Amino acid sequence: MSEVVSEIPLRSESIAVIKIGGSILTSARAYRRAAAFVCSRHRTSPEERLVVVVSAQKGTTDALGELAAKIVPSPRPAALDLLWSTGELRSVALLTLHLHALGVYATGLNIHEAGLVVPGNGSSTSAGSVRLDSARLSAVLENHNVAVVPGFFATNGLHSVVSLGRGGSDLTAVLLAAGLGATRCELIKDVPGYFTSDPHRDSNALPIPFLTFEHALELAEEGCDLVQRKAIEAAARYDLPLVVRSLDEKKHVSRIASTVPGTTWADSVSSLAVAP
Length: 276
Known about the structure:
Blueprint: E1 4-6, E2 15-20, H1 28-44, E3 49-54, H2 60-71, H3 77-101, E4 106-108, H4 111-114, E5 116-117, E6 130-132, H5 135-143, E7 146-150, E8 153-155, E9 161-163, H6 168-180, E10 184-188, E11 194-195, E12 207-208, E13 210-212, H7 213-221, H8 229-237, E14 242-245, E15 254-257
Parallel strand pairs: 1-6, 2-3, 2-10, 3-7, 4-7, 10-14, 13-15
Antiparallel strand pairs: 5-6, 8-9, 11-12, 14-15
């Protein structure tokens, strides 16, 4: 299991981490809507600093992978990771610009500035711990209301860019939230949390307001990819509650934690409970 260690004292001010997935970043309009959501959060709690983790626009990672494969049948991982990272960096810049247009004092960071470091010199993130060098990010939060950072990537001992696996933006958000001592970690998806069946296919699907980490992991093992399995494992390790939601403030949310209140959640949920 990955561990995250912050190298400087944690801030006393409140920090929230919000991850915005690529499945909802589908167009310029979608970026504007995401920026409006972040702006609303900032204006509701102006004393709170926001770290916004973004994925590449929907379809970008696959398209870049296909492009690489047209050049060389088996792209080397380092080159492929570098190419993939351009999608996340584009999202960082676009969302930051849209926040500026709304009058939010925000800044975008690159992968090295975000501070997640994988030990060793290879491309694998399976061994050892993930170290958070939070100096740059903490400095930014001292002077900005919002820091926008790329998900899905860290750097290694050679300062090269390495990916954290598909769905890795969820893991980025969890590791940053744990390392920064964030008060909450929200994962924004194209569905408002977990359902008893796929809401895209079943109009009678019922929302699931609470899940334990164990339950969420069971769903992930069954093929449910709403939240990356590694991210759930990391959140469980740090006992970091997660909120899974959409951009629509009027919709329900799902909360994942070590325990759930009462008996308001189902004992068994179909693996079809998640729309990707």
